[in-house]
Amino acid sequence: MAKKVSAASRINLSRAVENYQREGISQIELDQIVVMPGHNPRGYATGDNAFSGPGFDALVASIQSFGDVFQPILLRPKASSNLYELVAGERRWRAAKAAGLTHISALVRELDDDQIVRIARQENELREAVSQIDLLFASLDQLARRLNVPLRQLRTVLIRARDGGEAFPENSPEAQVRDLIAVLGLPSLATLVRSSRLLNLTADERQAMREGLSQQAALALLDLGEDPLRPQLLVQALREGWSAAQLRREIQQLRENQSPTIKQVAQRVKNGLGERRLAQLPEVKRKKVEQLLLKLDELLAQDSHSP
Length: 307
Known about the structure:
Elements (H helix, E strand, L loop, with lengths): L6 H4 L3 H9 L2 E5 L3 E2 L19 H13 L6 E5 L6 E5 L1 H9 L4 E6 L4 H13 L6 H16 L6 H11 L8 H12 L4 H7 L7 H8 L4 H8 L7 H11 L3 H14 L4 H10 L3 H6 L2 H23 L2
Parallel strand pairs: 2-4, 3-5
Antiparallel strand pairs: 1-5, 3-4
Helix pairs in contact: 3-4, 5-6, 7-8, 7-9, 11-13
């Protein structure tokens, strides 16, 4: 276990300390700092694994040598306590702990929830180690939290907001979407609608996107639904470096070679009857689906009452 060392005892740079103080930079105890769950886009889906590897080890070594971080972290006071919430700089904070420091240079600011989301996103967008898929998932998760809707229902809300947000009550999630997107500095509503399908990716597919699988290719995989060959196609696409167009061709060929069983057809229909999928259909098509469902229900009811 690393020996605890105060940054103040390691640094002998009085002028630098004076400059820090003039800028409002303080030495804060590491144990007084708490991480807000789901706040940092870095490693959104990988957790602690995002804060490891050669780059992180080099940062730890640098902090051990210097006795502090080169760039102060950003904190805000935690209400009714002597603690601080970490707004920006989680990687530096973790590295400082791993380096054995007891204190870290930090800017402490009074910030509201909207401001801290924007700051975290903007900081991480400037850092190449943050994958776009993690930034996307973090954006969707933050939006769902602020709208107070389950993440699994967010796509439906986004579609409704896109297609007729003005028709919803002022305090409804659909009516608040556009304003929140602007306040939080998120991608456009159209982009979020398109990208929100990626919430249905498997863990392996999300990891593949971190390693270079394009969003278009990932969306093509989603078109396969629960097809048992979907994992196999993912492996092939990564191994052979398929483009999204190549993957779509392979999927099309796969479908042409398959003769679906009644069970597979039933499963495919079931997959298409989810609330989110139905919400995407044009009104005319949705009504036709509803009519067919009523007829199917009638036929099944007749069969269940036959002698």
